[in-house]
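re the bet — no i am not wrong, look at it urself. input seq straight from the record:
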Amino acid sequence: MLALTYHGAHDVRVETVPDPVLAADDDILLRVTATAICGSDLHIYRGKIPDMKDGDILGHEFMGVVEEVGRGVTKLRRGDRVVVPFTISCGDCFFCGRKLFAACENTNPGRGAILNKKDIRAGAGLFGYSHLYGGYPGGQAQYVRVPKADVGPLVIPDTQLSDEQVLFLSDILPTGYQAALNAQVTAGSTIAIFGAGPVGMMAAASARLLGAERIFMVDHHPYRLAFAKETYGVLPIDFDQIDDPAAFIIEQTDHRGVDASIDAVGFEAKGSTVETVLSTLKLEGSSGTSLRWAIAATRRGGIISVPGVYAGFIHGFLFGDAFEKGLSFTSGQTHAQRFMPELLRHIERGELKPDLIVSHRMPLVEAARGYEIFNKKEEDCRKVVLTPFGLS
């Protein structure tokens, strides 16, 4: 089969690799009909994620048709059309029992990314996201093995829904939705979203669904801010034009700040020269720019919701400011399985239209170019969808 494989920073290739096979009774084999490049895939592309090996198959946003079913699978059958969540969860452990699927204790044989780990178990395995998370082959391929198939894949019964309408149930839509829920967005809320990438867009869509009244969105790509303004009614802030977005937000909120801020950027936020040097010298794991803005822009008693991926330690975290303001923090990988069914219903009713963000459609054989365009923000790229068997 054809699959997109990793060979080092900025070097991904579509190659012919062996077809996957069933390895456990609760596996399925999936023929991939659509897959997408996620913003977190760019961390891998830029060489920022450790424990990647040459030949690893990338991709954790994908869907398709069930081709083979392990004898222990009871909820799926051959021919089912399914969307697969990016986390691999057992459904039976301490955390899965609490619907904290991204914390599953039984699916990641890797180390995980916690620096001060002690003897704590790693969280859930992830598709296509390094051997820290289990080394599972990803879905930017023609076929993929899906473990724990009774727990993850969601059947899409409505044949009227296109792949693009439901594909993002795999990651970015539940990620944006969980971020908005964690921010306790309700009718009349005022929020700030840092980052106008795909997760930021899905957070804005989810916040509107939940009744947010005002949404500030901070980024420095004018085409993305313009799209978010037109599509989700955000108040755009270009930090290349406004040096201090937090100060601007405070001025626009009666010098109080927003009810909640969502950091949809994460550890590769554009930071100061000091942070660039610290990161290069490996004295800092993540840029703290977005978090500092979020802390400053949020009112006393407010919430900082962090769906953006962070790693290690951060320079200038300003926890004292957070304490003084009585801020609450929520963060972490998304428990996608928990939200996928209800989000599908919102899509079916036309209340969410995640496919609006798609800007580029390519066959899988052009995936390397898709990564380059997405990484460089060329051609007003918002989201790339790949079709493993050609464009449909």
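see?? The radius of gyration is 20 Å. told u. also The longest helix spans residues 336-348. so pay up
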